[in-house]
């Protein structure tokens, strides 16, 4: 009988305690260095292979550890921490498919420029490609979605001199100037996994940061070319996430140009702010009479399709200023792209003549005031909350001071953009990098963890069900978090699309309406959360203001919601 020999020598398992102590010391060193650099939060999904790093994170007194049972929820919570704080959190999981569940949040972090230190534990080399359980190829698992990937191998005492350097390089890469994003460290560990951290390597020289590559191509900032393109009278400023309210305010006051403000920009309180631009531009006469001679776009673009189509038709010189080097121009309308901080560029543009001495800005501001009155009047006549009314209430001055509002993609962010009140004390967040509806609850948890502020999540029932795993153990978290679910039993945004009128009702419901029949309050109650249904604006504000955790349902009807949007747009047009 032919006996097939082994393809490689047998590797004896190391049974001493030295290797476990080295691994523990390696992990403690990375955590210590990250804490010194300002990392305050770690998000951990339970697992065995990640034990050395999990213990190091839990042992550090300056790092707050949050445990999530589901890896996807953990990663979206880490995303929320980065969105709200601008600082990376440490995200940790075990090996195998656990690491694969990080992909969607990592993609969002990449597209939105959110820092994140992603740590995936792994099997050591001798357990790769031999059918070991919970083992996949984790090398560059997230492709080019990360700013840097590195696998340092199984920790060894001989390499301890490079441990703090590794931590610094990872931190530097995730916060790379102008291009923050996720960094992936794949960390293989051998058993035994529980060891004792020994004396940590000495601290690095204070000048070490000056020697680090900042991992980003800064590009060329041609402000002179921008000045030439923007040397017009009738210009507009479109601002989104990534802009700075103070600098935008100064520039807008100097140029006397209207500011079409996305709710995430933090600029809707400015005297020049135009919040109802979507409804205004649906009026053909107004849109035609107010075509700009030039457009300055600061930060990410708003969600409004109407705005995008109007800018395409206007065919005006279009200057985009965004700190990230990636191209954000799906409409093909940008003539000049400046890879720079909008705050840094605004001051240099104040030499432009703008619209001083003309009625350009006043025309826009007058239309904005009339539009806001029309929207308020229509919503005030409704005894029961509509979806636009929910968006307006949650962005009003009635919200808790310093409130953080996390808004789902799909209809909620559009309603907040089109009909939101824009209160100064409400900060709006939304995952608009990839525009997915996944992980919205977890992102809100991360925002609440990072800020400690009253946080409200606004999402639809499909997004709520999609992220139901984030409700696990939520009742045990010490947070001020209200989850407002607009419940129309299905995908409400599809009722606004051509599919709703071109398909048979049965086929539309099967593929797009997708009713699910889930009792969202019963689901929340099963997790020990306080629940209620809000009928009117006062009830909603009262429910949001209560301390602790809650899931608040607002009932809606998809067909009635389309009709309400139509009434609001008609009401705005009638005032013009």
Helices and strands, with pairings:
Blueprint (H helix, E strand, L loop, with lengths): L17 H19 L4 E4 L6 H9 L4 E4 L3 H15 L4 E4 L3 H4 L2 H10 L3 E7 L25 E3 L12 H12 L7 E7 L19 H4 L11 H7 L5 E5 L5 H11 L3 E3 L11 E2 L2 H6 L1 H6 L4 E5 L6 H10 L3 E5 L13 E4 L2 H5 L13 H21 L6 H7 L10 E4 L3 H9 L7 E3 L10 H12 L3 E6 H6 L14 E7 L11 H4 L2 H9 L6 H7 L3 E4 L3 H9 L3 E7 L2 H18 L1
Parallel strand pairs: 1-2, 1-3, 3-4, 4-6, 5-6, 7-8, 7-10, 8-9, 10-11, 11-12, 13-14, 13-15, 15-16, 16-18, 17-18
Short précis:
The chain is of the alpha/beta class and 576 residues long. Strand 13, helix 16 and strand 14 (427-429) form a beta-alpha-beta unit.
Structure report:
This protein has 576 residues and is of the alpha/beta class. The chain has three domains: 18-211, Thiamin diphosphate (ThDP)-binding fold, Pyr/PP domains (Rossmann fold, 3-Layer(aba) Sandwich); 223-364, Rossmann fold, CATH 3.40.50; 382-575, 3-Layer(aba) Sandwich (Rossmann fold), CATH 3.40.50. Helices cover 38% and strands 15% of the residues. The chain is built from 23 helices and 18 strands. A six-stranded parallel sheet has the order 2-1-3-4-6-5, with helices on both faces. It has a six-stranded parallel sheet with strand order 9-8-7-10-11-12. Helix 3 runs parallel beside helix 5 (103-112), helix 3 crosses helix 17 and helix 14 (360-380) packs across helix 23. The longest helix has 21 residues, at 360-380. The termini are far apart. Mean pLDDT is 92; it is low at 1-17 and 210-220.
